[in-house]
Design a protein that fits this description.
The complex is a heterodimer of chains A (295) and B (323). With 295 residues, chain A is of the alpha/beta class. Chain A has helices spanning 23-29, 40-43, 49-60, 80-93, 122-139, 161-172, 180-190, 194-200, 231-244, 260-268, 270-288, 290-294; strands spanning 14-17, 35-39, 63-66, 98-101, 104-107, 110-116, 143-146, 175-179, 206-212, 215-216, 221-222, 249-252. In chain A, strand 7 (143-146), helix 6 and strand 8 (175-179) form a beta-alpha-beta unit. In chain A, helix 5 packs across helix 6 and helix 9 crosses helix 11. The chains are: A alpha/beta (295), B mainly alpha (323).
Chain lengths: 295, 323
């Protein structure tokens, strides 16, 4: 959905992640980019160069915050100090929505700094949804939760990943950041059909999408974010766009980062699929119209 | 006649220790997950496994803390598929944990790496994180207890423990200087409003005052310059690159130095301080009133000298009002 309550009723186009190797290029050349996604944790500091760069970027561009350490699925209670820092950043950036992952990564205050897969159970969905609600109430901002790529599944799981995602977002009444690359990676690692996943989630809750590159190994696929987006992921993206509508889309490129232009051009490829989805919708609408029926 | 080879000092392997702050895992994973307590147990078990050091061949440890084979433990809670066993799936996460954190600490500590060498550095980091896994949501704080660990367990850095600890403190101070808060700086008006006997100052949070038994600042600068040269040479022909790689920065000799690690216009700087100046700043940081802090510099310090130090510190924005 282009604008909905989960992305703050915004209609953002194609963005890219703000990364250190591109700072100089962006600040000097001021390229036209619809928006930048920032990793919240990189700017949850009290001063110095990170905040100076952020302020300069915000003079020219719209930014959206994306987190990697809120761990909605960790059994631990939300950390107040963490939330306070995050809220201060939310106020600074005026991000229209905030995203983080549907995963866990800490226990007893010890952090793995990884996005670990959830056990897909009703109890953990309930706990996770409660936590998302608490965090949203504190931050006073719409939240989208992102599906992660995974390499392991638990015996205790009671449902599929997309059923779990649906259970969580319906209970929490929050949005989805649909990462189509992660769906593809997990589909290959766990032998499910990625189209079943995309068909199975509540499309009206999708507030943002991610695309990225991955790396194939003999027995599994890793979500490496160090390549251009591969064709099967673009096809999934096209399918998701048909179902969810044209949605704020972001390309993630976090390792072996090439030039700014290369990353941006890769992201702009999404336009082809967006145009395709729009054209398909127009044809469908014409076919359904009374004039078309009469003809 | 060929010289007999020196016996090589073996690099100790990290022992498997109970991580500080992490509660012990349950004997077995929950059979079903009905409550938040069950979720805690599952997450505690998996975290305890992930933070265990890898084997010499970068694999998951084959034996669990209760003596059972890890394959058996993994099979209890992780599903296998037709390509990977439960053990192999868990091993992927165990490897990613260690590879990621070692990479980050490698980048954050070029000086410490140069002191102990790359192989020993990796062992040191494994031992450090095995004892002190991260307790912060941000990777920025990963090295916060490294200097303390080096002091507690000198065997990882022997025979250069003293230098290694100094460099670790210096490199952590750079992290603080990079992004700690900047408070409103002290103005001449502020000084005029309160008598020196009552005026209490504080230092900027991004400023660290450090004393070392080695000229750590010049050493780390030399290491960084060498590394920058390596990067510059990365497109050169192989022979030139090898020549650069072999260039060694000699470890410094003992010398007492006083250093302020700070930032100015959001760039990192190191400033050597004279001992009396350092003592005055330290007294201010401890909360002593201005007049008393100045006496910490000693009787030999002349008023003009103190005045010139204060004008430099105020220009650098180091001083703030203590409220």
């Amino acid at each position: 959905m282009p604008a909905n309550s989960f992305n703050g009723q915004t209609d953002y186009g194609i963005g890219i992640g703000l990364r250190v190797p591109h700072y100089a290029h962006i600040l000097e050349k001021k390229p036209v980019v619809d928006w930048f996604e920032i990793i919240s944790e990189n700017f949850m500091v009290d001063g110095g160069r990170p905040l100076e760069v952020l302020d300069e970027i915000m003079e020219q561009y719209r930014v959206v915050q994306h987190g990697v350490s809120m761990y909605f699925g960790s059994a631990d209670k939300p950390d107040r100090a963490h939330l306070k820092k995050l809220k201060a950043l939310v106020k600074r950036t005026k991000t229209p929505w905030l995203s983080d992952h549907l995963c866990w990564g800490s226990v007893d205050g010890t952090y793995t700094h990884d996005l670990l897969p959830m056990p897909y159970t009703f109890a953990s969905a309930k706990r996770t949804a409660e936590k998302i609600r608490q965090i949203r109430d504190f931050l006073e901002i719409p939240i989208c939760v992102e599906n992660v790529s995974s390499y392991a599944e638990f015996h205790v799981s009671e449902m599929t990943e997309w059923e779990f995602l649906t259970e969580v977002v319906e209970r929490a009444d929050c949005g989805i950041l649909l990462d189509v690359n992660n769906i593809y990676v997990s589909a290959k690692n766990h032998d499910f059909n990625p189209y079943d996943y995309i068909n199975g989630v509540p499309h009206h809750r999708v507030g943002q999408m991610h695309v990225a590159g991955h790396t194939k190994f003999e027995k599994y696929i890793l979500d490496t974010h160090d390549h251009p987006v591969l064709d099967p992921v673009w096809k999934l993206y096209a399918h998701a766009t048909k179902l969810c509508g044209v949605t704020a889309t972001l390309l993630e490129w976090d390792d072996k980062i090439p030039s700014f232009d290369e990353v941006h051009n890769e992201a702009l490829k999404a336009n082809e699929f967006i145009d395709g989805a729009k054209a398909a919708k127009t044809v469908k609408a014409k076919a359904k119209s009374p004039e078309a029926t009469r003809a | 006649m060929k010289k007999p080879a020196k016996p090589r000092r073996a690099i100790p392997q990290p022992k498997i220790v109970a991580p500080v702050g992490l509660k012990p895992p349950p004997a077995h994973p929950p059979r079903r997950l009905a409550t938040t307590d069950d979720l805690v147990k599952l997450q505690r078990l998996m975290t305890n496994i992930l933070v265990r050091p890898l084997t010499k061949t970068d694999g998951l440890q084959p034996t669990w803390i209760d003596g059972r084979p890890m394959t058996e433990v993994a099979e209890e809670f992780i599903k296998p598929n037709d390509r990977l066993s439960a053990f192999e799936r868990l091993q992927l996460y165990n490897r990613m944990y260690w590879f990621r954190l070692i990479d980050i600490m490698h980048d954050d500590n070029p000086g410490l790496r140069a002191v102990v060498g790359d192989k020993k550095f990796t062992r040191l980091i494994e031992a450090y994180l095995a004892k002190y896994p991260s307790r912060s949501f941000t990777l920025r704080n990963l090295c916060s207890r490294l200097a303390q660990f080096i002091r507690e367990e000198p065997r990882w850095t022997a025979p250069h423990t003293s230098l290694a600890q100094a460099v670790a403190r210096f490199e952590w101070a750079q992290t603080l200087a990079f992004d700690e808060a900047k408070l409103p700086v002290l103005t001449a008006d502020d000084i005029g409003k309160t008598s020196p006997e009552r005026l209490r100052l504080r230092l900027q949070p991004y400023l660290s005052l450090l004393t070392f038994d080695y000229p750590v600042d010049t050493y780390v600068v030399a290491v960084k310059q060498r590394n920058a040269l390596r990067t510059e040479a990365s497109n050169a022909v192989d022979s030139a690159r090898d020549a650069v790689r072999q260039k060694h920065v000699t470890r410094p000799r003992r010398e007492r130095v006083y250093v302020g690690v700070h930032r100015l216009d959001n760039r990192l700087y190191y400033k050597r301080l004279e001992r009396p100046a350092f003592l005055i700043l330290q007294a201010l940081a401890e909360g002593q009133p201005l007049a008393e802090a100045i006496t910490a510099g000693g009787r030999r310090v002349k008023a003009a000298q103190v005045g010139s130090w204060f004008s430099i510190w105020m220009e650098l924005g180091w001083l703030c009002l203590k409220k």
